Amino acid sequence: MEDIKKMLCDLKDGKISVEEALLKLKMKPFEDIGYAKIDTHRKLRQGAAEVIYGAGKSPEQIVGIIDKMRNCNQNTILITRLDAGAAKIIKKTHPIDYYPQAGCAILGALPNNSGIGKILVATGGTSDIPIAEEAALTAQVLGNEVVRLYDVGVAGLHRILDNLEEIMSASVIIAIAGMEGALASVIGGLVSCPVIAVPTSVGYGASFNGVSALLSMLNSCASGVSVVNIDNGFGAGYIASMINHMGVDVKRQ
User: Are 174 and 120 within 8 A, CB to CB?
Assistant: First the structure.
């Protein structure tokens, strides 16, 4: 939406002609490169450009998608679920920054922070950090200030109570935990902002690869807690960004 507003302002100020504005709006909404159809209008529709899901794609396919995105003026590109071997090949043609713990790569500079506040990403344990980093990097790519608060699970409740100022000053919180997933309920009972719960597949046998945490989070008695799928750090980071940008235009006025 910001791109459309800028184009209309440019048209009003005489920086572009009616014909140029019409051409931008009429451009094909996707690029078909055979193995992928790249949604070039997603940022216009949803406020955030398309992200590349790396799992199952060859490095050559990802390079081809990047090329088309760059041709369509997408300056910052996020690639999720990317392994180190593929990242090494892609880096030969595109200067990506690879984050092995998150399994993510970023091409281009991170945008300025444009949200109304801070997104806090908290984990129950150190083993949850890979999913947390996926969430944090996603939020940063979408223009948010991110605060990381790791290894503050309920097995040592004093750890989270020692960070109440940061927790209570956040505009959105992403609570990431495996095992029994209690972290989301604890945080949800302390704050007035939305809490996005992310169950992880971390845990012993009866955790059922995250199903136990998922069910606990879905049944949270704390109000204001919503839940995304198991290990879905990207989804949590994206939703948190949407919440953190609600009313941005009103605030700027």
Answer: yes
